[in-house]
């Protein structure tokens, strides 16, 4: 896939685009007719009630849904002008360029150093690994806390540190987009703010798409927000998408207003 890419969004405008995307689990359509154009080097939040397909959409952006039996995606997701679901596209390459951070921190049961180095190594990194580990941990705002304990088990870190290590691990393979699926839901408020500050710093170089159930977090941390809900057949649909400040203060759709003011969901 990589040799078919020019490493710039084709029209210079979007980092990734979903176009009329339907996502099915067996015969159930979990997400209906989703079109979403994500701008580069911005933070885009996806909000909405439980069961509306937020995480399903996020996982579609790097083909993580491929691991779910019976899940299929119809329509397209364009990355560098190419549909990532085309038959000749290698999903492993997609996941290298579009990394993912999960809801629960999931460091490997290895040292802090090896957590960062592992992904780079299996992707054929041939540079100075010590430099890469340091550079990546600095980017993840973790270096100062762990630099004297790199051989220590990652499992000994606090939850917030583990999540920043997982972000470092994602950064080590040089992605362009970072997907975050409720990355703060298992963290305390102080650790949550550290992750939000980190996201803001990273967005100068990376495109970030975050699913969050925390509307205050979406309002604080994102540049753009997409609101999803369920239609009567329980398919997830995107109701509204726009600049976060506009969506939270002047929503265009009554369903958005009802959700963000707590009258629904």
Question: Can you walk through the features of this model?
Answer:
The chain is of the alpha/beta class. It has one domain (8-260): 3-Layer(aba) Sandwich (Rossmann fold), CATH 3.40.50. The chain is 33% helix and 25% strand. It has helices at 54-60, 91-97, 112-122, 129-139, 143-146, 159-171, 189-202, 215-221, 244-249, 254-260; strands spanning 16-25, 28-38, 43-47, 71-79, 82-83, 98-101, 177-181, 207-211, 224-230, 236-243. The protein has a six-stranded mixed β-sheet with strand order 6-7-8-3-9-10, with helices on both faces. Helix 4 packs across helix 6 (159-171) and helix 6 (159-171) packs parallel to helix 7. Residues 1-11 have low confidence and may be disordered.
Features:
single chain, 10 helices, 265 residues, 4-stranded antiparallel beta sheet, alpha/beta, 33% helix, Rossmann fold, disordered N terminus, 6-stranded mixed beta sheet
SSE inventory with pairings:
Blueprint: E1 16-25, E2 28-38, E3 43-47, H1 54-60, E4 71-79, E5 82-83, H2 91-97, E6 98-101, H3 112-122, H4 129-139, H5 143-146, H6 159-171, E7 177-181, H7 189-202, E8 207-211, H8 215-221, E9 224-230, E10 236-243, H9 244-249, H10 254-260
Parallel strand pairs: 3-8, 3-9, 6-7, 7-8
Antiparallel strand pairs: 1-2, 1-4, 4-5, 9-10
